[in-house]
Amino acid sequence: MRLLALILLALAATPAAAHKPSDSYLALKVDGEQIEGQWDIALRDLDFAIGLDANADGELTWGEVNARQPDIAAYALARLALRSETAACPARATGQLLDDHSDGTYAVLRFVATCSGAIAELEVDYRLLFDLDPQHRGLLRLERAGATRTAVFSPERGGQRFAVAELSGWHELLDYAREGVWHIWVGFDHILFLLSLLLPAVLKYANRRWEAVDAFAPALWDVFKIVTAFTVAHSITLGLATLDVVTLPSRLVESAIAASVVLAALNNLFPVIRRGRWAVAFCFGLVHGFGFAAVLNDLGLPQGALALALVGFNFGVEAGQLAIVAVFLPVAFLLSRTAFYRRAILVGGSALVVLAAGIWLAERAFDVSLL
């Protein structure tokens, strides 16, 4: 129980926008021996790294950012090395802009790198912010002749090599599927929402208390309905939002996702919806789909293969969910007849989920930092 409390309190201390940890977005377009680059880096990260707030008033102005453009370019490009199969490809900044992402304002650094010959294989060494924030991730979109690849840089995978000449639709599908798996595993609010709905799957509410189900099959069927409903729902809104058919403000979406976690966990403590929890999964799954779409859009969608990216990312999300279910359900069923599961895991765990998600909800709804 103590371990569970520590884990959930740690989740509560993660950034309020659980979809949006410290990320940067690096786009590289290869054409012959030249690489055109665009690098979106959050102003809050740059301020932390090199200090943009000249008057220390807690607010960044265009003048403060504009005055530090050379420093921003020097800081960033010193932490990115591009190399073809033969030699280094030195980069030079060509311009800077500002752009709004779903989690704030970003500096947009544009640059050009030139190699000694046509690029068949490209090595990218990414080292931005890893020394200051080990949770930072760099999201790469690599493009050549209309084909796209994506990758994620982390402290463990700061250097990666790409066969540029072999970019294909199959690579795109696998890349976006991998990003979908990664996102569901680091999307703590998605995980807690799903687990809050799954915790009672191995129990039944009778005589005003939770009791273990008689067999594994009913629990499996309940989980199947929940996961299927959640999948169908978020697939609908993921597609609509990605295609710009329906768009919602990021702050509203993130707040609603946090609220869905709170309500799902509260239902375990005060059972109002005892049957048909698949309907709850469907309704809130529509909201979670908008959250998935924000991540997919930030990865940079290839316009020539939009359907492929959508299918791959959604497939990855489902694979990540099924992996969680495959681990959780057998263990939960084995423990379901114990008081430990009913009291510590279901009741205690749900109470801690309410606490963690409640902090997220307050931070997202009121744009404040509580932890």
Care to give the gist of this entry?
With 371 residues, the protein is an alpha+beta fold.
Indicate the topology.
Blueprint: H1 2-12, E1 23-31, E2 34-42, H2 43-50, H3 62-67, H4 69-77, E3 80-84, E4 91-101, E5 104-114, E6 121-126, E7 137-144, E8 147-153, E9 159-163, H5 169-186, H6 188-198, E10 203-206, E11 209-212, H7 216-242, H8 250-269, H9 277-299, H10 306-335, H11 339-366
Parallel strand pairs: 1-7
Antiparallel strand pairs: 1-2, 2-5, 3-6, 4-5, 6-9, 7-8, 10-11
Explain how this protein is built:
With 371 residues, this protein is α+β, with helices and mostly antiparallel strands. The protein has 2 domains: 194 residues; 146 residues, no CATH class. The chain has 11 helices and 11 strands. The chain has a 6-stranded mixed sheet with strand order 4-5-2-1-7-8. Strands 3-6-9 form a 3-stranded antiparallel sheet, with no helix packed on it. The N terminus is likely disordered. Helix 8 runs antiparallel to helix 11. A hairpin with a 2-residue loop joins strand 4 and strand 5. The chain starts with a helix and ends in a 5-residue tail after the last helix.
Sequence of secondary-structure elements: HEEHHHEEEEEEEHHEEHHHHH
Structural class: alpha+beta
Note the quaternary state here: single chain
Question: How much of the residues is beta strand, in percent?
Answer: 15-25%
> How far is it from the N-terminal to the C-terminal residue, by CA?
22 Å
Counting H and I runs of at least 4 residues, what is the number of helices?
A: 11
Radius of gyration: 23 Å
Mean pLDDT: 87
- Low-pLDDT windows of residues: 1-19
Task: Categorize the overall geometry.
Answer: globular
**What is the helix fraction of residues, given as a range?**
40-55%
What is the count of β-strands?
Answer: 11
Number of domains: 2
Please give the largest β-sheet: 6 strands, mixed
Strand order of the largest sheet: 4-5-2-1-7-8
